[in-house]
Specification:
Layout (H helix, E strand, L loop, with lengths): L3 E6 L2 H11 L7 E11 L5 E5 L2 E2 L5 H12 L5 E6 L4 H9 L1 H13 L6 E4 L7 H17 L3 E6 L1 H8 L2 H8 L4 E5 L6 H10 L12 E6 L6 H17 L7 E4 L9 H12 L8
Parallel strand pairs: 1-2, 1-10, 2-5, 5-6, 6-7, 7-8, 8-9, 9-10
Antiparallel strand pairs: 2-3, 3-4
Helix pairs in contact: 1-2, 3-4, 4-5, 5-7, 9-10
Length: 277
């Protein structure tokens, strides 16, 4: 299971340098590239894109940088994240879930150096669409395995709470679930409610539940201290056997600095080197 996943939303004109920068980092086990999205064309067709660029037009040098990231001195598990930003993308997927699932499956098991798909649904995506997409992707994964994960907001969890049978079908098909942490809420409490089943009526193994946190403008020592304290409590509570942290980097900011990432390492697993196993 992932210990520290970095969601890396970057424009393609700058992502190659960032990927090469990440190669030397010991602090991340997984990297989620994106945002991936579908760009509907005429009729019922749609292009699968990365940061607005059709995948067929992504330069080979970028895929080579992804491959170096996954096979270097500190190899990372690299997956693609289907972002929430494009409402047109999710609207198209709702109209043709099978085509969307097939395209994402082909990406996850195709020649590109990716090993899975991370779903970050838009807040207004209907529950039945999200469940159907997850189920179809999981069915494909049974034939040719790849990682399948999902980020859910507290509002989406509340919607699923009223549908226990749907929730059960959804989470059982995921390798892990990242609970979006909103500033002001206690992440320790939120994680405990999800693991115990108090939130949804369906308990989950702690190893399958991550926290998702966005690093943006104005982040400083007080915010880091609060987050690290929460992570330390969860690590102690579960003896180190829990999902860990999914960090979302700001698309216009540099990667989190070394002191920040080292503090998160210490909180997650006593400062030991992250493993991608």
């Amino acid at each position: 299971m992932p210990r520290h996943l970095l969601h890396l939303p970057r424009r393609l004109d700058v992502v190659e340098a960032t990927l090469d920068e990440l190669r030397s980092s010991q602090h991340y086990s997984h990297v989620a590239l994106g945002p991936l999205h579908f760009s509907p064309g005429s009729g019922t067709t749609a292009e699968l894109c990365w940061s607005g660029v059709p995948l067929r037009d992504v330069p080979e040098s970028i895929w080579s940088a992804v491959d170096r990231l996954s096979t270097g001195e500190h190899p990372k598990v690299v997956i693609g994240r289907l972002g929430r930003g494009s409402r047109r993308s999710w609207k198209w997927m709702a109209q043709d879930v099978e085509s969307a699932a097939r395209r994402l499956f082909d990406l996850a098991v195709g020649p590109q150096p990716l090993t899975g798909i991370d779903l970050e649904p838009a807040p207004d995506v209907p529950t039945d669409v999200l469940t159907e997409l997850t189920t179809r992707l999981a069915n494909h994964a049974e034939r040719s395995p790849f990682l399948l994960s999902q980020v859910l907001s507290s509002d989406q969890l509340e919607s699923l709470r009223a549908l226990p049978a749907t929730w059960s079908r959804l989470v059982e098909r995921l390798d892990w679930l990242a609970l979006e942490h909103v500033s002001g809420n206690c992440p320790v409490t939120a994680h405990a409610e999800l693991v115990s089943g108090r939130l949804t009526g369906h308990p989950l193994a702690a190893e399958r539940v991550m926290l998702s946190h966005v690093i943006g403008w104005g982040w400083g020592p007080p915010e880091l201290e609060r987050l690290a304290s929460s992570l330390t409590r969860l690590t102690e509570r579960h003896g180190g056997r829990w999902g860990g942290l999914a960090t979302s980097a700001h698309p216009e900011l540099p990667l989190p600095h070394e002191d920040w990432v080292s503090a998160i390492d210490q909180a997650l697993h006593g400062g030991s080197v992250v493993s991608s196993d």
